[in-house]
Design brief:
Elements: E1 2-4, E2 7-9, H1 14-173, H2 175-193, E3 199-204, E4 210-215, E5 224-228, H3 232-240, H4 244-268, E6 279-282, H5 286-295, H6 297-305, E7 308-311, H7 313-334, H8 336-390
Parallel strand pairs: 5-6, 6-7
Antiparallel strand pairs: 1-2, 3-4, 4-5
């Protein structure tokens, strides 16, 4: 139920319901009309600037047409001007091309002449260079021939040296010749390091063993033996070993050979009361010596225990220099008495010389005194002779009988 203007209306009444619907529709139409009017007003206000712009645009289009006509005329003028300019440019270019062509012809002719002259000069230089090169080539060939001759000579020396090396290999391959080689090397080293009376070679000891070298050192330590040994087979087997079994076998052979040499030297050349309490084993090869100390230190210790000292050419020279110092000191001690005697005699000679120098000094003093007196007498004699020469007798001081006889001229 709805109360309108004091009247009660039922919603279930169809008439009332139609009236209400019709009123609502009317209100809706009025609202839509009002909204359309507002939109129309807005569109009109919006269109006014657009209309003005269209008017301005029409004026601009008209002006653009006028400008296009003017541009067409200007383009025609520019085309005509460009045509004239092109004609002038073509004429100018033809003139310049003709001038350039003439210049190019002149330059080409000039360049051709210069090229001809340069070619002639180059040919002349090439001739001179070839001549000089031929001389240098001849000189170089001469020098090359000389060098080839020197190379041939060197080749001959190398061939001779290779033969010497083969001979050395032959020598080292035989035990007897290898022993002789070591003895010769030992002989050379000892003879250079010691005086001739300090050593002896191939000395037979009391046990009938012959030592390669015996150094005469004073006691202690006494004479010492140097024996040359060269275990070359074992060393070469060690160098040739390629597998571990071969290396082990070669090392065993090396130990056996060195131990055998050490034992032989210790038993043969260390004699109580005759030689020193040690001996030297000389290895003629530095390589064997180095290999022994590098790979077999136990053999070196065994040689120390056996009082056998292993030396190479280098260490042997150092040892012999030490021995030379010992010999020099021993000889100085042996000659100490003679030196003292000579010093005593020298002292007496010096004292005697001092006495004689004193006597000579006294003689010189007396002689100097005599010479001084002689000089005084000579001065006086000279003064008297000068007065006599000048006839100056006033101060002569010579008076006889208290009177002086005057000099008178004889009567005429």
């Amino acid at each position: 139920m709805i109360e309108i203007a004091g009247k009660v209306v039922s919603l279930e009444d169809p008439v009332a319901l139609a009236i209400i619907v019709a009123g609502g529709v009317l209100c809706l139409i009025l609202i839509l009309l009002w909204l359309g009017l507002r939109a129309t007003n807005r569109s009109a206000r919006t269109m006014e600037p657009l209309v003005q712009q269209l008017a301005v645009l029409g004026q601009n289009v008209q002006q653009l047409g006028q400008g296009q006509e003017a541009l067409r005329g200007g383009l025609q003028n520019v085309s005509d001007t460009q045509t004239n300019a092109q004609l002038q440019v073509v004429q100018t270019m033809e003139t310049r091309l003709a001038a350039v062509q003439q210049q190019m012809n002149d330059r080409l002719a000039d360049n051709a002449m210069r090229s001809a002259r340069a070619l002639a000069e180059m040919q002349e230089r090439m001739k001179e260079t070839l001549h000089g090169s031929s001389k240098q080539t001849a000189t170089s060939l001469t020098a090359l021939q000389e060098r080839l001759a020197a190379i041939d000579k060197a080749q001959d020396n190398i061939t001779k040296l290779s033969g010497d090396v083969l001979s050395l290999q032959d020598i080292l391959s035989n035990k007897q010749t290898r022993g002789a080689f070591g003895e010769i090397q030992l002989n050379d080293i000892v003879s250079k390091a010691l005086p001739p009376d300090a050593y002896a070679f191939q000395v037979t000891l009391s046990n009938s063993r012959r030592a390669d070298c015996l150094i005469h050192l004073p006691n202690p330590p006494g004479p010492i033996v140097i024996d040359s040994k060269f275990p070359l087979e074992a060393y070469e087997a060690l160098r040739r070993a390629e597998t571990q079994p071969q290396l082990n076998e070669a090392a065993r052979l090396m130990r056996v050979a060195v131990r055998t040499h050490i034992k032989a030297i210790s038993e043969r050349y260390i004699l109580d009361g005759e030689t020193a309490d040690g001996a030297l084993m000389f290895l003629p090869s530095e390589a064997v010596y180095a290999e022994l100390h590098a790979s077999f230190p136990e053999l070196v210790r065994e040689s120390f225990d056996a009082r056998v000292w292993i030396v190479s050419p280098t260490t042997c020279m150092a040892t012999l220099n030490t021995m030379r110092a010992i010999l020099k000191d021993a000889r100085m001690r042996e000659q100490a008495g003679a030196i003292r005697k000579e010093l005593s005699m020298l002292h007496k000679d010096v004292e005697r010389l001092g006495d004689r120098v004193g006597n000579l000094d006294r003689h010189f003093a007396q002689a100097q005194k005599d010479v001084g007196e002689i000089k005084i007498s000579a001065q006086k004699a000279g003064q008297r002779a000068l007065r006599l020469d000048r006839f100056d007798f006033d101060d002569a001081g010579v008076k006889e009988s208290g009177q002086v006889v005057p000099l008178t001229k004889p009567d005429a």
